[in-house]
From TrEMBL:
Family in the record: Belongs to the bacterial ribosomal protein bL19 family.
Name this protein carries in UniProt: Large ribosomal subunit protein bL19
Keywords for this protein: Ribonucleoprotein, Ribosomal protein
Protein role: This protein is located at the 30S-50S ribosomal subunit interface and may play a role in the structure and function of the aminoacyl-tRNA binding site.
The organism's place on the tree of life at top rank: Bacteria
GO molecular function terms attached to this record: structural constituent of ribosome
GO biological process, one term: translation
Keyword Ribosomal protein (UniProt): yes
Organism: Bacteroides stercoris
Keyword Ribosomal protein found: yes
A GO CC term attached to the entry: cytosolic large ribosomal subunit
Length: 117
């Protein structure tokens, strides 16, 4: 058997996360180790891209911290991710939302998809 596949299976978390796509607003709860203490930090922002497949799948979340845009890349199978919560389902026609980097203020908002039910 391939050694890479064995290593990937050993480090796979097997957690079930909700399905989301580019344009959705998500809150990612991930664990941070500071010295000997461990805490959970929430990171809320818009998913601007999803890349990769299988265990290598990762997604980029962009949020505004004051007037500065901050992007963070999370691997889906990361053991540091505690949970992922979908806050809003966005209505977009693109898979990669790089154009949001150039927009500020109300122009950077994404329309919310109306959910019947």
């Amino acid at each position: 058997m391939d050694l890479i596949k064995i290593a990937e299976e050993a480090f796979a978390t097997g957690k079930q996360h909700p399905s989301f796509k580019a344009g959705d607003t998500v809150t990612v709860a991930y664990r941070i180790v500071e010295g000997n203490k461990e805490r959970v930090q929430l990171y809320r922002g818009v998913v601007i891209k999803i890349a990769g497949h299988g265990e290598k799948k990762r997604f980029t979340v962009r949020k505004m911290s004051g007037t500065v845009g901050v992007e963070r890349i999370f691997p889906i199978e990361s053991p540091a991710i505690d949970s992922i919560e979908v806050n809003k389902v966005g209505k977009v026609r693109r898979a990669k939302l790089y154009y949001l980097r150039a927009l500020t203020g109300k122009k950077a908002r994404i329309k919310e998809k109306r959910v019947n039910g």
